[in-house]
Amino acid sequence: MNIDEVKIYVLVFFIYAFAGWIMETTSISIRNKKFVNRGF
């Protein structure tokens, strides 16, 4: 495993984490009918 592979894994991790936060925030906000900040 070289440094480029590690960079890709870290980047993919952050992309999936951000996408999960967006999906969770959207679903909870729709359910509550107002914006709910889930984290950060």
Written account of the structure:
The chain is an all-alpha fold and 40 residues long. Helix content is 75%, strand content 0%. The longest helix has 30 residues.
Largest sheet: none
Low-pLDDT parts are none
**Could you say which overall geometry the principal axes of the C-alpha atoms support?**
rod-shaped
Structural class: mainly alpha
Radius of gyration equals 15 Å
- Distance linking N and C termini: 31 Å
In terms of quaternary structure, what is this?
single chain
The averaged pLDDT comes out at 93
Instruction: Give a count of the beta strands, DSSP E runs of length 2 or more.
Output: 0
Helix percentage: over 70%
Q: What order do the helices and strands follow? A: H
Strand percentage: under 5%
Count of alpha and pi helical runs? 1
Summarize the structure.
The protein has one helix spanning 3-32. The protein is mainly alpha-helical and 40 residues long. The radius of gyration is 15 Å and the shape is rod-shaped.
Features:
single chain, 40 residues, mainly alpha, 1 helix, 75% helix, rod-shaped
